[in-house]
Amino acid sequence: MKCKRCKVMTVFTKKSGLCARCYSYDAGRAKHKQRQKAPYGSQKGHPLLRCYRKMLDRCYSKNCTAFPNYGRRGIAVSPRWRGVSGFNNFINDMGNRPDGTSLDRTNNELDYSKENCKWSTKSEQARNRRTNRVITVGKRSQLLIDWALESGIKRETIMMRLKLGWSAEDAVSVPPKKTRRVY
Known about the structure:
two-stranded antiparallel ribbon, alpha+beta, two-stranded antiparallel sheet, 9% strand, 3 domains
């Protein structure tokens, strides 16, 4: 038989359908054609599939680098979003992802579920982290970065003042001294 790739009369292995000369594959010559199963039914090329798989990996795959921050802490995925129809339920609950957003949990201590997830921009997600520092001055509580933007004092200055033992009120209200550094 003639190989379509190398255009030479050659022998094809019956089982795999590979050309003995150039190893190109000819599905018509394979004895047992291997059917590729589409993961998650007909949603193989769906734009949210990668997001969905990464969410599951963070919570259940011990090989995932983010597992210590999710699965090991007990963060799980809603039973509705797992199993055979889980991906379709995820799509129905979350809807299409707007441009420039990614999946975000409203409360970082709770599981991935319809009630606790939304599409957020990077700046919104940066304000929704466990490591963010909340400062209370009087009866107002807000993130350190928000106090910095409101007061005009650099974030690093406020952090250093708090580290040095300043009160929260003084750290965000006392303007920094204008000093000239000589190097």
